[in-house]
Amino acid sequence: DGTASPKKIVKLAKVADHSGVVNTSWGEPLHYAPGEDIIVRHGAGDYGVVKKDIFAKTYDTTELK
What we know:
It is a single chain. With 65 residues, the protein is mostly beta strands. 11% of the residues lie in helices and 35% in strands. The strands form two sheets. Strands 1-4-5 form a three-stranded antiparallel β-sheet. A two-stranded antiparallel sheet has the order 2-3. The chain is globular and about 45 Å long. The N and C termini lie far apart (35 Å).
């Protein structure tokens, strides 16, 4: 009917505590900075980096509290 709703997918995430790089499934390395970025694990060997403020707006962490 043309409607959609977000799928609940549990992902592991961690606030970066040092500078570094993660590998993505598409082969592009993503850099992260301590205190500024969240490292999100999408799957085995597949990570993403999300800015803290964007993470707070786009990820639901209510079940963690």
